[in-house]
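The protein record quoted in full:
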Amino acid sequence: MIQRLFYIVFLLLLSSNTALGQLPAGCSVGSSFRCDGWPLSKLDLDQQAGGSMLEFVFDDLSDYNSGMTYYGTTILRVTASDTAADGDCAWKLRMIVNNGGAPTPTGEWLQTSSYGTSGSQPTIALMEVRVTNACATSPVNGAWQTFSLPENGGEIILIDDGNFVNAAGTGGACGGGQTNSAGSYLTSFGEFAFVIDYRIRPFFNYTPGKYELNIKFCISEDL
């Protein structure tokens, strides 16, 4: 039987800004508005399980060793509208991690409960993310990633190709590269939709307790 001393829970809270041109915390947006605003342009966050919260519970030896993975839990659906049809609507898509800030150290999960004292505090680097879509438009498509640095405010870039507009393919076909033009998942699901997997593999290094992180999906204009 696993004693309470070896019990650890990770809560992953998921949220998003819903439209190009908005300015949510941790998601900087420029002043150029070449794409249409909400509701014509938007990011839909579809959670397949657990709603806006994923819970990783480690109370079994095999889970500590092999880790836990949520497959296909989040589906991001992008709609980028350009009614002016001037061809300069470009967007970028990022994931930004937040641990609540001080006094939590910048590289650690926020601890909300303690079940023991042995071990070290879990780090943000434990959180692994994989993004895929049918057209492999993201430069990190199919590869497990950790957040940059990794620490509070760290990012995983899904789409960001500078000042270039990479047009979507025609008839739902893949256009190639980081598609970031006007378009929609309704007409090109393989380019404008992204499936997100999450994985944590703690092994036995960390202090038993309950911990939280927030991940925000951020869509904004690519200036």
